[in-house]
Amino acid sequence: MKETENGSPLSFDGLPIGFEFPPISDQLSKSVVSKYIEAVEERDDFVSVGVVPPLAIGAFAMTALSQKFTVPPGSIHASQEFEFHRVVPIGTTVTCHGKIEHKLQRGRLNLITLGITVLDQDGNQVLTGKATVAAPG
Amino acid sequence: MVKLTEKPKPSDFHEGDKIPSITKQLAQSKINRYAEASGDFNPIHIDEAFAAQTPLEGTIAHGMLILAYASKMMTRTFGQAWLAGGKLSIRFKAPARPQDTITASGQIDTIETKDGIPYINCSLECCNQNGDILITGGAVVKLS
Lengths: 137, 144
Hints:
heterodimer, A: alpha+beta, Thiol Ester Dehydrase, Chain A, five-stranded antiparallel β-sheet, two-stranded parallel sheet, 3 helices, 21% helix, B: alpha+beta, 5 helices
């Protein structure tokens, strides 16, 4: 099941297991990466070496996906998994794929797990992961 | 500090080794800066008036900002092996506040070899100045 390209943000409760977000692409330019490095106080040599900090890719993916759906007030980022598969040079265009992998009700919380895969412009997997969001039921 | 282009040798690490920690002082200005950099403008992070009316009673840092400190710690110790071969699995246990001092720390729990490739299994934590655990979990670094 896939969202239409023109779809507006979906409600948290409206996302079925197996739902795939439309892929989201962006270039991890020097200015984007520099801004990230400054914000997280990461070491400067990422820019001089020309490499994207791995969590910057994860941040891109999380933000891109979170703009595709709305969560109820009081939702929290409960857990996160990331695996970094290869070094990503600054300037790489990456594409993020997201899929609803699990939904679970635990007590008064609804837990939803997003599967994340980020590819570079050559189709190589650069990052995979899972994010679990807990929302009040 | 290991260079970004450098892959450390398995013999550089031992079970029980502490990973050199990193301490960062948070501030609302730093949270705002992360919002700008990441594009995550959720008002719970940046709108102090809004956040004051929520059960959290104030703004909190983005979890991914705190996690970035842990990733920085791992990069400093494992260099390129973290950038291509790092894996983490964590839980966000409590929110970080703008006035918090965050310390990311870790330890090498075990080193195992599978198919001739060494894997370093670490435990990770991020705590505030009161010792409250904000993030806990583990990481694996593949040294190939």
